[in-house]
Design goal:
116 residues, mainly alpha, Leucine-rich Repeat Variant, 8 helices, 0% strand, globular
Length: 116
C-alpha cells in the first residue's frame, strides 16, 4: 500500500480502496499537505485538480507545495492551468509576483494580479 493510502486510512478513516478521499483532502487540514503534494504528481488531471483545490483551501500553510504547483503550470491546460495559478497566488503571493514579472502574456498578468 502506498504511504499516502496508509495515511488516508489512519488519519481520514478511509478503510476501503473505493472510499472517497476528496472531501477530506479538501477541508484545508495541514495534515493532508504531504498527500496533496504527492497527488500533484499524478498523471490524471482530475487527481491534480483535487490536490490543487485542497492546497488552495489550506492557504499560506500550503507554501511548501509552491514548487510543485509552479511545475504544474507547465503541464496543465485550460481550466486546470487557471486553478493552479490561483492556488499559487493565494498560497504564496511573493512567488506569484516573481512569476508575473517574468511573463508579459496577458493571461499570466491577469491571473497573477497585473490586469484587473
Amino acid at each position: 500500500m502506498p504511504w499516502w493510502q496508509e495515511w488516508a486510512t489512519k488519519c481520514l478513516g478511509v478503510n476501503q480502496p473505493g472510499d472517497d478521499l476528496s472531501p477530506a483532502l479538501l477541508d484545508g487540514d495541514e495534515a493532508a499537505l504531504p498527500v496533496l503534494i504527492e497527488l500533484l504528481k499524478d498523471e490524471l488531471p482530475t487527481i491534480r485538480t483535487i490536490a490543487t483545490q485542497g492546497l488552495t483551501k489550506m492557504g499560506p500553510k500550503a507554501r511548501p507545495a509552491t514548487p510543485a504547483l509552479i511545475q504544474n503550470l507547465q503541464i496543465e491546460e485550460g481550466w486546470g492551468w487557471y486553478l493552479v495559478a490561483d492556488a499559487i497566488r493565494k498560497i504564496d503571493p511573493q512567488a506569484a509576483d516573481r512569476i508575473k514579472e517574468g511573463r508579459p502574456d496577458w493571461h499570466w498578468q491577469r491571473c497573477f494580479g497585473g490586469i484587473q
